[in-house]
TrEMBL record:
Region of interest: Disordered: 99-126, 492-535
Organism listed in the record: Echeneis naucrates
Pfam family, one: GDI
Cited PANTHER family: CHM, RAB ESCORT PROTEIN 1, RAB GDP-DISSOCIATION INHIBITOR
RAE1/2 domain sequence ranges: 362-465
Taxonomic lineage of the native organism: Eukaryota, Metazoa, Chordata, Craniata, Vertebrata
Protein name: Rab proteins geranylgeranyltransferase component A
Record keywords: Cytoplasm, GTPase activation
Main location: cytoplasm
Composition bias, Basic and acidic residues: 522-535
Amino acid sequence: MAAEDLPSEFDVVILGTGLAESVVAAACSRVGQRVLHLDRNSYYAANWASFTFNGLLTWIQQHHEESQPEEVQDWSSLLEEGEELIYLSYSDSTSISNLQQTADSEGVEPTADLPRPSAIQGQSEASRKKISYAQLVKEGRQFNIDLVSKLMFSRGSLVDLLIKSNVSRYAEFKNVTRILTYRHGNVEQVPCSRADVFASRQLSVVEKRKLMRFLTSCLEETEEQQGEMNIVFSLFLCDQQLGDNLEHFLLHSIAMVTEDTPTEVGLASTRHFLRCLGRYGNTPFLFPVYGLGEIPQCFCRMSAVFGGVYCLRHSVRCLLVDKDNRCKAVIDSRGQRISCSHFVVDSSFSLMNFVSSCLPPQVSMVTVPPIAAGFPVVMMVELCSSTMTCLPGTYLVHLTCQSVGSAFDDLSPVVTKMFHTPETDDQETRPSVLWCLYFNMADGLDVEVEGHNLPSNVYLCSGPDGHLGHDHAIRQAQLIFQKILPEEDFCPPAPNPEDVLYDGESLLPTGGGGGDNSGWGEKGEETKENPQTEE
């Protein structure tokens, strides 16, 4: 929408199109609120975004350039009696740091049939071909590269919300087909479902019995577990006499926690993993086709369907706050005063007055335990071209961890161990790295969104957190919505298109909102609507 066409009054103004902000926008529009959703960028999703390869190179260049401080203009002429100005400052430079990229001139697929995270070692010689960096640039539109690497738990809050709201109709998903772990220099498949355990050739019969007994007891929450909540999870596993193999699988690939994690947290993570198994495949995870950046855009699309107004490359310069410490209006980047009842903003903006093989292509998740003392656990997600995130014949691999030092210091030793790089000379034994980017991103869990002396109707949304799932962002969006509209349902099901009558500019649902799609069915249940998933 053109900036000069913006109406002068909305119920909710939202600045930033990250996941939490986009969910709030969809939820508010769905119950009839007038929503204005702005983003200073030319793309959706902020730090949740997905880029083509060339788009990512542009993003890197923009972050390397020194940003010029925005000129502070005098907007006092737009003040009404009893109001004061609070200027908004963009400070996203603090959320991305230590950018470093490397590129190899050309790569060739490995010839040795060694255990590793890619699934292409079974290709015939005729199908092998070199892929150059120049080809990556030329075919850059075939890539969709996420800034943040996450997977969707099949029974997580995001999947439940996608189904409840009918937003799942706007996207397609792929199953993560296998869970892997890096151990003793090899990549091994982790047996996690009942079928995997019994079919595994890695485990002895005794180990299979022990693992099944332990996983069953985890789901039942026994008294024995309650008595050992005061020790760390690694010691708890040791007390179960499971053996090194099973302890490694459970700690790093099923619970996905560190050795010093409390037992209560480790068991809760294990239960969540197990309860997500079997809903859509033999692992607990889904991944959105075209990348994670699709999800915020899906919620934006729902908001727009119900009247939300969208404007990219458009921002808010300041807030107008009354004597009761409520935001009465905002002034946008073109100097227009826009009245609003509530204002939601990405935390990257600060308020100046307030400081505080023959095998089919696979989608794989790999856990890499600390390679040495002082190094973090690394989570690796490998995406094949069928996820529409990379060029056919290549894989897109995300490595993430909790920062100890710079991203290069933390992750490059793992890259060197598992891939061929320009610094190594064993090109025929490991997959070749064509291009590599390292950067640190601020953890959204470390961003304090409460406790600021903000106007009572202004709400902050933090960016992506360091966890694998999306629970933090969805919980944050739900809390903000409940503060804005405590009596309204959060993201009720959108009506099916055939149930909507268009009366001028309004949308009039003719039925009961398209049925009750509040969840995908458990095993044995009838499911009214399923996400579009592929194996």
